[in-house]
Write a structure and sequence with these properties.
There is one protein chain. The protein has about 350 residues and is an all-alpha fold. The chain has one domain (about 5-260). The chain is about 75% helix and about 0% strand. The mean pLDDT is about 90.
Length: about 350
């Protein structure tokens, strides 16, 4: 099977599952919506972390920024945001159907664009760093932004802010937000598949392999790095807006900027499936989410130990992720050609000659 046919087969399966899931598993619509969000987390993180070699620990920043931008837009279009929050009395306005849907559309759009725009100055500050310094720098940004928002009384500070209530039955609202998250994730995957096949994809791969040589060959590394990060921020911002509406309440440290949970999950899921590939992060996200939900349900108090064990096993035994391990074990299934006539000594000799 060619790579294109494999991609189309996987897309067909994901789309079919996404359409049928609310009918097959009506009691788990929210959990499956979160699974789509996890897939988006891992795939968007991999744009910089896997394809470009910049392992960020702070991508959760754009998720939270998008969530708050959406809240401010959805409320601020019709009421004073400060009066709406708990810090200033927490008025309880009633949004009409037209107001709600209009605010939701503009809120989602503003969340994506706003997160992408905010990522540019942040990127200019941290994308000059490399290796662990970049990772720590992005982590510092996430923590700093969370603390700033938690002290900003206009958006409720630490008390948080409620999202406008969906003007319909709760079950209908769950389906609406599920559909939005599903469409966003599939759209993100289609976009990334196209992006990685273009000159842009080759450029960020060159940055990953050897940034200095790429720059010497004429690749505008700063532009490509900033753009790749902005793409990830755009999708994360919209996902934050959808998630905020889905749960109905935004709190800075545990909901909007949960660095210790969602922020780490992004990295762990991509590594589990195999970073630097299109489908590795998807596989990792699905498996990680299933294990997370099962341990949360049946191993209360042990869930963090179970997830930690998965990460340790992944790092020790599957350094290239599950997809990398599978491609080494069954190369023909991935369209890889292996010369079986060459002995191990021959391969080692060729490797030494290439190194010399």
């Amino acid at each position: 099977m060619t790579a294109r046919k494999l991609d189309y087969s996987i897309f067909t399966f994901l789309i079919a599952f996404g359409i049928l899931a609310p009918f097959l598993f009506p009691n788990f619509v929210t959990q499956i919506a979160v699974m789509w969000m996890m897939i988006l987390f891992a795939s968007s993180w991999d744009t910089a972390g896997g394809q470009m070699g910049y392992n960020s620990l702070g991508n959760i920043t754009f998720f939270g920024v998008g969530m708050y931008i959406s809240a401010v837009v959805q409320v601020g279009m019709f009421y004073d945001v400060a009066e709406y929050t708990a810090s200033f009395g927490a008025i309880k306005p009633v949004f009409t159907d037209a107001q709600y849907y209009k605010g939701l559309v503009f809120g989602l759009a503003a969340a994506g664009v706003g997160a992408a725009l905010i990522s540019i100055p942040i990127g200019l500050c941290v994308l000059g760093l490399r290796g662990p310094y970049f990772a720590i720098g992005t982590l510092g940004v996430a923590v700093a932004v969370a603390e700033l928002v938690s002290a900003w009384s206009y958006v409720g500070a630490g008390a948080g802010i409620s999202m406008p209530v969906y003007p319909g039955p709760a079950g209908e609202g769950s389906l609406v937000f599920y559909s939005l998250m599903f469409v966003l994730t599939i759209g993100c995957l289609f976009f990334l598949r196209w992006l990685y096949s273009t000159q842009f994809g080759l450029a960020i791969n060159a940055i990953r392999d050897d940034e200095d040589k790429a720059e010497a060959m004429g690749v505008h590394t700063t532009l490509y790095k900033s753009t790749a990060w902005a793409f990830a921020a755009f999708f994360l911002g919209i996902s934050g807006a959808i998630f905020g509406n889905m749960i109905g309440f935004i709190e800075p440290l545990e909901v909007a900027f949960p660095t210790a949970t969602f922020g780490i999950f992004m990295v762990a899921m991509s590594l589990l499936g195999g970073k630097g590939t299109l489908w590795g992060p998807v596989i990792g996200a699905i498996l990680f989410h299933i294990v997370k939900e099962l341990t949360w349900s049946y191993m209360e108090g042990m869930q963090w130990i179970a997830l930690g064990a998965i990460i340790i096993v992944n790092i020790v035994y599957f350094q290239q992720g599950l997809l990398g391990w599978a491609s080494d074990r069954w190369p023909a299934a991935f369209g890889l050609i292996v010369d079986k006539s060459m002995t191990a000594d021959d391969r080692d000799g060729d490797a030494r000659e290439a190194a010399e």
